[in-house]
Amino acid sequence: MKLNDLIHLLKNAAQQGTEKALAESGQLPDQLTKAEAYRLYGRGNVDRWISEGLIGHATPKVAHSRKCLDRARLEAIAASSNRITYLPAAER
């Protein structure tokens, strides 16, 4: 195993452990508003994932009219998306 592979594995383990602990303690909500998803993952990405049917709107758990997205599903889609690694048009 190369050093970069080990670093990547340890980084992912620490991140997943932190997210699990925050979710279990109630500090990390299980749903995001569309605006929060836009800030985290970019408007174009979120809109594309919705239009491709990868993620849909979840029913909000609190009484507000904002459209919510499932955080776990959104994180899984973002992690599996490799478009972030693509070069911008100016650098191709």
Automatic annotation (TrEMBL):
Protein name, UniProt field: Uncharacterized protein
Species per Swiss-Prot/TrEMBL record: Olivibacter jilunii
